[in-house]
UniProtKB/TrEMBL annotation:
<dbReference type="InterPro" id="IPR026590">
    <property type="entry name" value="Ssirtuin_cat_dom"/>
</dbReference>
<feature type="binding site">
    <location>
        <position position="149"/>
    </location>
    <ligand>
        <name>Zn(2+)</name>
    </ligand>
</feature>
<dbReference type="InterPro" id="IPR003000">
    <property type="entry name" value="Sirtuin"/>
</dbReference>
<feature type="binding site">
    <location>
        <position position="67"/>
    </location>
    <ligand>
        <name>substrate</name>
    </ligand>
</feature>
<dbReference type="Pfam" id="PF02146">
    <property type="entry name" value="SIR2"/>
</dbReference>
<feature type="binding site">
    <location>
        <position position="70"/>
    </location>
    <ligand>
        <name>substrate</name>
    </ligand>
</feature>
<keyword id="KW-0862">Zinc</keyword>
<comment type="similarity">
    <text>Belongs to the sirtuin family. Class III subfamily.</text>
</comment>
<dbReference type="InterPro" id="IPR029035">
    <property type="entry name" value="DHS-like_NAD/FAD-binding_dom"/>
</dbReference>
<feature type="domain" description="Deacetylase sirtuin-type">
    <location>
        <begin position="1"/>
        <end position="251"/>
    </location>
</feature>
<keyword id="KW-0808">Transferase</keyword>
<feature type="active site" description="Proton acceptor">
    <location>
        <position position="119"/>
    </location>
</feature>
<keyword id="KW-0520">NAD</keyword>
<dbReference type="InterPro" id="IPR026591">
    <property type="entry name" value="Sirtuin_cat_small_dom_sf"/>
</dbReference>
<feature type="binding site">
    <location>
        <position position="152"/>
    </location>
    <ligand>
        <name>Zn(2+)</name>
    </ligand>
</feature>
<keyword id="KW-0479">Metal-binding</keyword>
<keyword id="KW-0963">Cytoplasm</keyword>
Length: 251
């Protein structure tokens, strides 16, 4: 059975700017727990109790322990057909942009040539004093527990945008521009509880983009979308690709 009607297929094929907005759900099939779904709790802590500046101030060991644990999961996970379809699409057309809330590094590992990581990256740390950034694996800091700056010896923190923190202005401006101009927006695996990503999607829709949501559940954004596919992104995205580009295999 066809997923998309003919007019939407045409609209997507003819679009000259397309944006993918992804959240934790796209990595769920790779075995990475979402915060709110099953497996989201860690030692009875909620993410909201750990991913905050206050939590880090009170107990940096505990916060690092949680990120070290999550980083190991990300290292051992592999991109799934959802990530791979987006990467292939970006390589095929240079007007396909990707904005993610994920910090797991699976989009770059799937070969995506360009990516805006709104919430940071779990493989990076940042100095609490001099703001220097480090790649935990490449810089030899990929051990458990507290980590210190090679330059000023101050404590490092995960290079993640925590609850209540400001976004990187540069990334945000680029993301607004892309969404304003987009003719098609795919919103994938995000509960749309965080207001910035939800507003990015709405900005695209209000500026005339065709909205397509892929999420097993309905969200606050569902009613604003032209299409909602209530399935897993690793299954729905390859099907959409095959409908759009029947002569171009995903393999
Ligand atoms: P979220 O709010 O983005 O919600 C996850 C959504 O994914 C839910 O709506 C769920 O229905 C949907 N989903 C589940 N399985 C799916 C699938 N197979 N295909 C498509 N959709 C699916 O995520 P959250 O877990 O509540 O996290 C909120 C914040 O925490 C995000 O900003 C994110 O950056 C961060 N986070 C990141 C990761 C990661 O990098 N993988 C993991 C957990 C949390
Ligand atoms: Zn420093």
């Amino acid at each position: 059975m066809e997923l998309l009607p003919k007019d939407s297929l045409e609209q997507i094929r003819n679009a000259r700017s397309l944006v993918f907005l992804t959240g934790a759900g796209i990595s769920h099939e790779s075995g990475i727990p979402t915060f709110r779904g099953e497996g989201g709790l860690w030692k009875n802590f909620k993410a909201e109790d750990l991913a905050t500046p206050k939590a880090f101030q009170n107990n940096p060991e505990l916060v690092w322990e949680w990120y070290d644990f999550r980083r190991e999961i990300c290292k051992n996970a592999n991109p799934n057909p959802g990530h791979l379809t987006i990467a292939k699409w970006q390589k095929k057309s240079n007007f396909v942009s990707l904005i993610t809330q994920n910090v797991d590094g699976l989009h770059p590992r799937s070969g995506s040539p360009s990516l805006l990581e709104l919430h940071g990256n779990i493989f990076r740390a940042r100095c609490t004093k001099c703001s220097e950034k480090f790649h935990l694996v490449d810089d030899g800091l990929d051990h458990s527990g507290l980590k210190y700056c090679k330059y000023c010896e101050s404590l490092l923190r995960p290079d993640i945008v925590w609850f209540g923190e400001e976004y990187d202005q540069n990334l945000l401006t680029k993301s607004w521009e892309l969404c304003k101009q987009s003719q098609v927006v795919f919103v994938i695996g995000t509960s749309a509880n965080v207001s910035v990503p939800a507003n990015l999607a709405l900005t695209a829709i209000r500026n005339g983009a065709l909205g397509i949501e892929i999420n097993p559940e309905e969200t606050n954004l569902t009613l604003s979308m032209k299409h909602h596919f209530g399935g897993k992104s690793g299954e729905v995205l390859p099907k959409i690709w095959n409908e759009l580009f029947p002569n171009e295999s995903l393999e």
